[in-house]
Amino acid sequence: MQSTQSHLFTPYLSHHFHCIQFDPDSFDALSFEQQNILLPASLDKAVAKRRAEFLAGRICAKTCLAQFGQGDFTLLNGSDRAPIWPANIVASITHTRGIAAAIATDDIAVKGLGIDIERDMKPKQEVELQRQILHPEEAEIFALFGEQVHCPLTVIFSAKESIFKALYSTVQKFFGFDAVKLAQFDDKKLIFTLMETLHKDLGKGQQVEVYYQCKDALVLTECEYIAQ
């Protein structure tokens, strides 16, 4: 599969980050073997597009892990489908059509990382999906945020995905979009409030920060969880 390193995004978080743009149409049966990356059995019958995106994410993860001398680590998924990272490594992967990225750190203070890349929703989706993604109390601040960015729902969706990824290793359970509510924003950062207690260290009312940036009809969000 053809891929090239992308410098489209410069992350705000100061951890090892790698992003690639890839051509899913160039994916073939040998692509995993050529990259020395294991194709999980769960993807044996997946469509080529899905396998290409998975491979792209794993290529990014492998590059990040190499920064810690773990480039040959076999990255498997657990029963919950979350990646099982090497001991003392905290990381996150994201991929969408044609682009993928990963971020990783060995900073012991960091308990969770989450990144997410999304392509801008169509205007119709920006309206129709609001009820599924927004907390009922987010309507007012969401309208204000919409005056600042052209794809506000895409950004909020991506941010909540990054929050889930960053907190999941601590929470160890699934939680919905309405578990957090946008409370504040500026031109690079969103601050969300937990609307329910997710864990003894993540109580209702606690705030979570997410960085965001929009470029070339794409959104990147980044979330870092540091336990108090």
From TrEMBL:
Protein name listed in UniProt: Enterobactin synthase component D
Cofactor(s) in the UniProt record: Mg(2+)
Similarity section: Belongs to the P-Pant transferase superfamily. EntD family.
Domain 4'-phosphopantetheinyl transferase: residue ranges: 112-195
InterPro entries: 4-PPantetheinyl_Trfase_dom (IPR008278), 4-PPantetheinyl_Trfase_dom_sf (IPR037143), 4PPT_N (IPR041354), Enbac_synth_compD-like (IPR003542)
Keyword Glycoprotein carried by entry: no
Transmembrane residue ranges: none
Ligand binding (CoA): R50, R58, T94, H95, D116, E161, K165
Coiled-coil intervals, chain numbering: none
Gene3D superfamilies noted in UniProt: 4'-phosphopantetheinyl transferase domain
Catalyzed reactions per annotation: apo-[aryl-carrier protein] + CoA = holo-[aryl-carrier protein] + adenosine 3',5'-bisphosphate + H(+); apo-[peptidyl-carrier protein] + CoA = holo-[peptidyl-carrier protein] + adenosine 3',5'-bisphosphate + H(+)
Record Pfam families: 4PPT_N, ACPS
Binding, Mg(2+): D116, I117, E118
GO cellular component entries: enterobactin synthetase complex; plasma membrane
A Gene Ontology BP annotation from the UniProt entry: enterobactin biosynthetic process
The 4'-phosphopantetheinyl transferase N-terminal domain, residue ranges: 43-104
Pathway: Siderophore biosynthesis; enterobactin biosynthesis
